[in-house]
Design brief:
The chain is an alpha+beta fold. The chain has a single domain, classed as Lipoprotein localisation LolA/LolB/LppX (outer membrane lipoprotein receptor (LolB), chain A, Clam), CATH 2.50.20. Helix content is about 25%, strand content about 45%. An eleven-stranded antiparallel β-sheet has the order 6-5-4-3-2-1-11-10-9-8-7. Helix 1 runs parallel beside helix 3 and helix 3 packs antiparallel against helix 4. It is globular, with a radius of gyration of 16 Å. The termini are far apart.
């Protein structure tokens, strides 16, 4: 059976979570305002349900848990089911904890592809539109009631991992986040905000 790289999966999860923050009206002219809103978020908590579709498995793998972020660079993903797991990012250090297994800590400097994900996240958290555009082509469509954001990676090291991320929602609520990977796998994360601090 195919086993995903836990470090790569973690970085993707962080990216999806960080983008799940309040959005302005979805069009190109509002991107500066969107970046301003992103920069105002100092902390956020949410619950998630993630379904991962892998080609060799008939049914999706479903995981549930909690997500949290504290500016500028503290991120956590706590999976509760089907198997407990805690992923913690502090600065450029990623720690993975699983019951009954040895705790693992790695430096993002040793993983260039993952580092690119993290730098994209930090650019988003800082409300740095130019940094985000360095990594992605952004397309925003729709209205306040129903908007769609599509991120397409520009850099080869990112495009080797996934082809695009699609985020849809209504007003400030993110409804679904879909990730299309280059190997044909597909994931959908549903995020329900618990709180936001500004």
């Amino acid at each position: 059976m195919k086993h995903p790289d836990p470090i790569r999966a973690t970085a993707i999860a962080w990216l999806l979570f960080v983008l799940a923050v309040p959005f302005a009206r979805a069009d190109e002219m509002q991107l500066p305002k969107l970046m301003h809103l992103l920069a105002q978020t100092k902390a956020a908590k949410a619950t998630f349900v993630e379904k991962t579709y892998i080609g060799i498995i008939d049914r999706p793998l479903v995981s549930k848990g909690d997500l949290s972020f504290v500016a500028p660079d503290s991120l956590e993903k706590r999976t509760l089911t089907p198997k407990p797991e805690l992923l913690v990012l502090r600065g450029d250090m990623l720690t993975i904890e699983r019951p009954g297994k040895r705790r693992m800590t790695v430096s993002l400097e040793e993983h260039p592809e993952i580092s690119a994900f993290i730098e994209s996240i930090r650019g988003t958290l800082a409300g740095d539109l130019s940094a985000l555009k360095t990594f992605y082509t952004l397309q925003l469509t729709g209205s306040m009631e129903k908007w769609l954001l599509v991120l397409t990676p520009k850099q080869q090291r990112l495009s080797r991992i996934f082809s695009r991320i699609r985020i849809s929602g209504s007003r400030a609520d993110v409804k679904t986040i879909e990730l299309d990977q280059r190997d044909g796998d597909h994931s959908v994360m549903t995020i329900t905000p618990v709180s936001h601090s500004r």
